[in-house]
Amino acid sequence: KTTKADPTDPECNLFNLYLDEYDSKWTSQINRLDYLVISSGHWFYRPVIFYENETISGCQYCALPNTTQLPLYYGYTKALRTSLRAILENFKGLAFLRSFSPQHFEGGPWDKGGDCVRTRPYRRNETIPEGADLKIHDIQVEEFRAAEEEMKKKQGLRLRLMDTTQAMLLRPDGHPGRYGHMQTAA
């Protein structure tokens, strides 16, 4: 479950993420679905305040005083686990967890001069998942395996991993041309 930290401020890019609560916007309708795809990852790179048991447990990229800075992986693991638990408890159809699509910036991160200018796909031996992209993928596989074990106890639910990380790593770009960056006067 997530909310904007200050919904009255359109410039606010800080979010509250309730790591142990379901978002009723989708869980209230889950029993009406035959298929469900969970696709996540990049959203978790933004400034977030983490809540557990209705209390702030820390934050990421927030620089709030007296608040513990927690890594991206902390919030991502718990949020994914909570989402998978919601599916296990409330869903009877076919669910897919689509793995993380790696970033495609070469020459640095997107905000430090990196760009997506590749015009042909990588060959299989030219690049490998690494760093944060690999860690997110590993978390997804680990949480999927744990959910898969729980699923075996449940009648009717089918859960599958659609591991697209390697295929998406090879694609030529993710943000063609100048559209991968904020437009500035320069």
UniProtKB/TrEMBL annotation:
One of its GO terms (cellular component) is Golgi apparatus. One of its GO terms (molecular function) is O-acetyltransferase activity. Pfam families: PC-Esterase. Residues 6-184 form the Trichome birefringence-like C-terminal domain. Belongs to the PC-esterase family. TBL subfamily. This is Trichome birefringence-like protein 21. The gene is TBL21.
